[in-house]
Amino acid sequence: MGVVGTRDLTVEYPRVRALDSLTVDIPEGVTGVVGVNGAGKSTLIKVLLGLLRPTSGSVEVLGMNPATDGPRIRELVGYMPEHDCLPADVNAAEFVMHMAVMSGLPHAAARERTSDVLRHVGLAEERHRPMGGYSTGMRQRAKLAQAIVHDPRLVLLDEPTNGLDPRARDEMLELVDTIGHSFGISVAVTSHLLGELERIADHVVVIDSGRLLRASATSDLTDVTGDVLVEVLGPAGADQRLGQALLDQGMTVWPQGDKVAVRVTDPSQLDAIRDAVVDLDLGLVRIQEVRHTLEEVFTQEAVR
Asked: In this protein, which residues make up the domain named ABC transporter (predicted)?
C-alpha cells in the first residue's frame, strides 16, 4: 500500500452512490485522479481527510484511519479545495500564516514558512494585498500555498487549474510538478482535463460513477500503439507523395495533418520508410512513435 489505500470503499447519499466498492492504492509521487464531474473525486478527498465517513469499506492515509486519526492526518496532509473559499478582506500572508499555525507549526516557524511558500508560488510581491482583489490565478496560488505551508507528506489538490487561462494553467501545473518531484511531497491531484495529468503525473487513477476503471503508471497507459508519424521536408504535396509510395509497398497509411501516419508491424518497415523518403528526394524530419493519450484510454475504459 502507498500513501493512500482503499478497500471496497463505498459512500452512499440518499439518492446516489458516490463511491462504489472502490479499491485503489495511491503510491508516492504525483498521482492524477481522473474523472468527469460527478465521478466521485471530491467525495474521495473528503473521506481521505476524515471529513466524511464512508458507508462501508476501509481506507488508510499514511498508514492511519481517517475515521479515528483525522486530526493527525490533517497535520500531515495538505488540502487545496476546488471551490473559492478565501476570505476577501484578509491578505495572503495573514491567511497562509494562520493556516500554518492551525496545522501545528509554532509562530516563528509559521512566519518563516509563510514567506518561503508565498515566494515559491509567486505571491511574494502581492502578499499584503487583500485576497478579494486577487485574480483567479492568484487565488489559486494562495490556496496552494496554504496547502503546503506546513511541509506535509501528502497534498490533495482538487481541480487546481479550475477557471485558469492557458498560461496560468501551465504555471500551476509547473508548481504541482515541482512540489511532487523536487520537494518530495506526494501529490494526489484531481482533474477532468486528461491532458494536464499526462504532463505531470507518475500514476493515474481513472474513476467513473464512483467505480475504479483503471489504475496504472502513466507510462503504461500512454504506451506505444505500433504506429509512427513521419514528417518530411519538400515541395507542396510531399506528404501525399510519400503516403502513396508507402501504400504502393503494401503499408497501411493515413494522413495526420501535414504528416503521414504508418502502421508498423515489422521493424524492417522503418528502413523502408526511410528509403522511400530518400527515393523521393525529400528531407526526413522525424519518425515518431505514436502513443495513446489519456483521453483515448479514458474513452476506451468508459465504453467497456
From this structure: 4-234
